[in-house]
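Quick start: load a record and inspect it. Here is WD repeat-containing protein 65:
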Amino acid sequence: YPAHAWSPEGDRVVVATDTGDILVIEGTELKMTLSSGLEGAALHCMVHYQKGFAVGADNGTVVLFDREADDKLYRKGRSVVAVGQPHAIRSIACSPSEESLGNESAFEIVAQPFHSGDCADIDTCIRKPLAVSCSSDHSIRIWNHHERSVELVKTFAEDLMSVALHPAGHMLLAGCIDKLRLLTITMDSLKSVKEIAIKGCRECCFSSGGHLFAAVNGTTVSIYNTWTCENIGNLRGHNGRVRSVIWSPDDQRLVTAGADGAVYEWRLQDFKREKENVLKGCNYGCVAATPDGKELFAVGSDKKLKQFEDSEGAGTQMVKEYDTKILVTQICLPAGGRVLFAGTETGCIRAYKYPLTGEYQEYRCCSSSITRLRLSHDDGLLFVSSEDGSLFVFEVKDRDPARTTTKRDGERMPWSEEVLVGKADVEENRHHIIDLETQVNELRTQNEYQLRLKDMAQNEKIREMNEKYAAEMDASKMKLEGFIQEKNDQEMEYEEKLRSGREDALAQAAAAEAQYQTRIMAELERYAELSREKDLLNERWDEQHTVLVESHERVVQEITQEYEIRIHEEQLRMNTVEGEKEAANQESSEVLHQQEEDADQEIEEMRDKYEAKLTAERDMGLRLKGENGIMKKRFSALQKDIDEAREECKALFDQKKELYQTIAGLEKDILGHKKELLERDETIRDKEKRIYDLKKKNQELEKFKFVLDYKIRELKRQAEPKDDQISDMRDTIKEMEAEIARFHKNNAALDLTLSEYRLKENGLQKEILRQRHSMSDGEQVIKHFQNDLTETAQHIQDPHKLKEAVVLLLQRHGGTGGGPSLLAQDVQAEFDRQREFLERTIATLRKKTVVESEQHRAGYVRIRQENMALVRELNQLRRELRSARDGGPQSSLIPALSPKTGVSSNQLSQPSSPSNPKALAVAKKRSPSGQRITSPAHWKQAGLMVVSDAEGGAASPPKAEVEALKSRLLTLQQQLQEKDERIEMMETQLLPRPVSRGQLPPMAPIPKIPLPTQ
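Running the structure step on this input writes:
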């Protein structure tokens, strides 16, 4: 049980098993068992969420289980492939809010998936920045050293021992424990092209051009054509296992090193060994060569680095030898480089100066022995693999920057980006693309429909909001117009009031002025009157002039003061009225200004209010849009739940309908069973009646059985001597059958000997025919040569023409001209003709063999039937003999025996007499089981008994009848012999059997004809 999880309520636990099953346990009771549907994949982790739980499996799949409606059961939901490759999921985390993933974080790969076992082999290619490695963990990994990543991982069921990558980078060789596989590299997998029967191939490599590849099969190096996988040659010569193979740049030579201490250089034109150097006791592990092939370097078990050079007349000789102190496992030499790289058993890389002086620099690399060194095509990268499963890439720093720049930048082509894709994959992808396009179109249509619906709904809402805002705007405008009208009315009212106030003030001022003018005029008139009175009084009152002047001045002064006071009061009143007027004007202008400010402020407030309302409405629209999106998600989730509930209801309805149908069918079955019971009751009653009748008959038969038992005992006592005689005759028949079988075996042996003689005869005839053809071909060659020689002799006087004729004669008959090629064509034509003739003969013989086998089978069946007829006739004769010996009283028992024994009652009822020996009927020729009745035991088993006279004795048959039987047997033997002779005669008429399908004998060599000398 790898994982378990408690439900949020805490009353239920869900347990995952390593077989892919899920157990739901509540309390101590197993409620249900669920299947993940992943075909036995182990489940490693589990997490609960609100609607169910999720489990992670071996193959990178997450399976979701949702709760049912009753909240007690679970059902399997959808499956999600969480990772690109089928890796096991070890942990799952669920969001606390249980929402969908809104943003996927960008994860970066920290480390690539390395090998878990020792890295056995690596290789590189030219056209792509790829390197391939294989390991004991049964995996092949393709690395991109340009991007520093793993492009492909392929796992096999068997061990991998070697790997080689094609120079183009689209094919590779994998040496497995049971076979060598040629694989093509596709976009995401490796596909097997050919499997070659080479077991335990520890070394394989492609040629420099890629059209050939070499594979080590023990002590033999096999060369194959890459495009046809045809074995074009084998290099044999090593006495130990071949440990290293390298190709020359022109693919014309191959250098091998083996555990037998031999370094061989092979010429691939004729697959012959060209150069060699053998050092006994040293097991070479790796060999390297310069591009021109003149120098070789090898390392082995003697912990020494050896340098070989070609010497004229002496072959490959070791010229230098350096002690490495430790075991060097691998070496490699860059093309035109200045260093020789070597890998040691301690995991170090050594860089020896080239030409070799013994000096080196050592770099610590791995913790275990280095298994392989490989250089990239531009010699810029060094790939190192080790037994600890690590793969290191070193950058080679060349000290010649001009050559490095030319080699890396000037000559190198851009990396190839092409990949191989199978036609089936293309078709599948095309169909998948078509399906996805269809789904996209459907989704686009659905989304457009949904968008149209949303647009319609939003447009309807916008229209409603616009109408609402337009109505509010109209109401606000009307209200504003009302305020403006009220403002205008108030302005007119205040202007009217101001105007009326001004008029009233002017009228009051004019009235006061007129009143005061009237008063002044009245006072002036009165003053004039008083002046007249004064004049009168002056005249009368001269005496009192002083008193009157003083009194008059005092009175005038008093009146003046009084009137001045009154004028001042009037002026004050006028000033007050003017102030009141100015105040009224200011108040009216202030009221008007305040009303205008109030109206403007109210307009600004209404504008701010409605702008705030509009902003609030916009915010509300945005919030409603967000809520609308959330509601849409909820609606889609609810719609999905509704659809699932509908599907579940539909399934339940279908199940209910099926149950109703089942109930109806069961009710029909019940009615049928009731009817059947009634019928069976009737049948039982009939059977009971029948049983009652049979019991009565059985009682009668038991009464008759006593009499029959007595008769049977008498008949058995009489049949014993005759049974002995029948057993003797049976033994005789068995001996005859054994003799017939022996004759058949002898015939088969003779047939085999005869076929061998015929094969020998055919072989001799073919050899004679071949010799004749060879002689005729030789005579033709001699004749052609004589004719050409005669023509050549015609130019005896002209040396130049004679030389040309001799050269032509040499070209025609010297082994490389047209004569042997014509002869070879004739031989090939003759071989094809013979092969076609033999194929036609084999087809004819097969047809004849089938026909003759059918004839033989029919003949054997006919002979067997005749044998059966003879046996039946013999039994018939015995019965006739027995019936001739029996008496007449048996006829009274025959009717009772005939139903049991199957004997015809019409024949048995007739009395037998010596004059009519065949009157008695015979039993059936076969038993009820289909077996032939050939013995008394079989007769007894089949219920066949011959009725004899109770009073008659068991007398032996007469000698004349025995002699007749013997003569009959002799006649049958003669017939069998005649049939065997006829079969042999039919076999002799057949054509000779075809020869075996072995190889034809080699052609006879063409005899050499000596040239005549002058």
